[in-house]
Specification:
With about 325 residues, the chain is mainly alpha-helical. The protein has 13 helices and 2 strands; from the N terminus they run ββααααααααααααα.
């Protein structure tokens, strides 16, 4: 694991730069912009996985935003029943048993899924990072309390809890559904982060920050979090994939309601109308499955490609304002 220290804190008009010389405030901000923004972009763009993952995610975002203006909403009778794919550009992916365009159903299912992913993955990742980091760094009574809460959350079975919450609250907001789907999944990640922080808090550079009088929030922000961010990012993507699969499964089973369009609803309609037993209707199952797998694949590629973003040595190599001449391997 790479060691990272505080790199930038502009408090005076003249500060020391990475090469030890004196610089003005504007030069410090320029160096910060290069190291914190431009270098990560260069690193990400030099990895084919990040490029492909970014393009796939951007495609889904465009489909869920611009696509709504280009594709008409799914309605009964948009075309003939069970029209095969590519028979007509009016319904290029074919139609279902009610003559609804599958392209319209897939496009209009995308925005709620993206909102669920955003809410669920952000909620579980932030909860796990806060609890795991504070628990591992502070230790003592705080660690005992947070670890007990984490253990309690881990012992609650996730699926029955989600079904209960959905039955009681009947959520119609995709953001609330996303949070419900990850309501206790943060606990496992919090445990893992706590273990990582326990090994980091005794490193020499963290001890130096403590001796210099840095506050706990500053040490966590500058010395601890950068070292666990690759792990957190990978788990953010795993949480996002869990939201996708969980939402599709619950809509497929009919447990979640309040939405007329979801990839799980399309799969349920295809299955109940025996599309799985007919090669002529198999496209009805395949296209929503391709949409699900495609988004999950894009997230995985993006996470794998961005692992290097939090390696300070690699970032220094891609920063024009940093003179990084120390020998190292990428």
């Amino acid at each position: 694991m790479a060691e990272t220290n505080s790199t930038f804190d502009a408090t005076d008009d003249h500060e020391g730069t990475s090469d030890g010389s004196t610089a003005t405030r504007s030069e410090l901000y320029k160096e910060w912009l290069d190291v914190a923004v431009l270098a990560p972009v260069r690193i990400a763009w030099n990895d084919w996985r990040t490029k492909l993952g970014s393009l796939i995610i951007a495609f889904y975002i465009l489909m869920g935003t611009v696509g709504l203006y280009l594709v008409s909403p799914p309605n009964q009778g948009q075309g003939p029943q069970h029209a095969a794919p590519f028979e007509s550009m009016a319904y290029p992916l074919g139609t279902n048993h009610m003559g609804r365009s599958l392209l319209s159903e897939i496009v209009y299912s995308t925005p709620p899924v993206l909102k669920m992913i955003l809410a669920g993955a952000v909620f579980s990742t932030i909860m796990a990072t806060i609890v795991g980091t504070i628990s591992g760094y502070k230790g003592g009574f705080v660690d005992s309390v947070l670890t007990t809460l984490t253990d309690i959350a881990m012992t609650i079975p996730g699926l029955p809890l989600i079904i209960l919450l959905v039955a009681v609250f009947e959520p119609e907001s995709p953001y609330v559904i996303g949070i419900f789907l990850t309501i206790n999944s943060w606990a496992g990640l919090a445990r893992s982060i706590r273990s990582q922080v326990l090994s980091i808090r005794d490193h020499s550079y963290v001890e130096v920050s403590r001796i210099m009088g840095a506050s706990t929030p500053k040490i966590i922000a500058d010395d601890v979090l950068p070292n666990i961010m690759p792990y957190v990012l990978v788990n953010f993507v795993n949480s996002a994939r869990g939201v996708i699969f969980g939402a599709v499964a619950l809509f497929y089973l009919g447990i979640l309601g309040g939405f007329s369009n979801n990839w799980g609803i399309t799969l349920n309609e295809a299955y109940t109308n025996a599309a799985i037993y007919s090669l002529d209707s198999i496209y009805w199952l395949l296209f929503p499955m391709i949409a699900i797998v495609g988004l999950s694949f894009g997230l995985v590629l993006f996470a794998q490609g961005t692992e290097k973003l939090f390696n300070p040595r690699i970032r220094a190599r891609h920063a024009d304002t940093v003179d990084d001449t120390a020998p190292h391997e990428e």
